[in-house]
Write a structure and sequence with these properties.
Elements lengths: L11 H24 L3 H13 L1 E3 H8 L3 H13 L3 E5 L7 E5 L1 H22 L4 H22 L1
Antiparallel strand pairs: 1-3, 2-3
């Protein structure tokens, strides 16, 4: 059997990365221009909005962002008055994060814009295509996590 040649444009991990970067860059420009948020900062706000109160370690595990990125984003958001940080009674070495009223207001302003951008991107596809694509992304994620173990 002849090994196939690596053609970068046909290499699926590369295609996933390029597409992800295009979408992330588009979102980053919008969030930065409208709200002064970086992508990691927005991810923290979104995760905390869903969780209510959560540790930085749990955010890292959920988003697969490294500790330094989560920590820098958390510090920036605390400094802006969007997050509150308090001691974690279950683990004295960590902190719990929660949205302040200003953070909740920001989330309420950003979330509809995020959903609108998603709708604009995926309006070019049939709902069943989006559902299959989402299912495939979840499967790719699960397989990749299994391979990493």
């Amino acid at each position: 059997m002849t090994a196939r040649a690596l053609v970068l444009d046909d290499f699926l991990p590369y295609r996933l990365s390029v597409t992800s970067n295009l979408v992330s860059d588009s979102i980053a420009r919008a969030y930065e221009a409208l709200f002064g948020l970086t992508i990691p900062e927005w991810r923290l706000i979104a995760v905390i909005a869903e969780a209510g109160t959560i540790s930085q370690q749990a955010i890292g595990a959920r988003t697969l962002m490294d500790k330094v990125t989560v920590s820098r984003a958390a510090i920036a958001l605390v400094d802006r008055g969007l997050l509150a940080r308090r001691g974690n009674p279950g683990d004295k070495r960590s902190h719990l994060l929660e949205l302040t009223d200003a953070g909740q207001d920001l989330y309420a302003a950003v979330a509809p814009k995020a959903l609108d951008l998603e709708a604009r991107i995926f309006s070019h596809f049939e709902p069943d295509e989006v559902a299959r694509f989402t299912a495939m992304l979840r499967r790719i994620e699960a397989v990749t996590l299994d391979l990493a173990r």
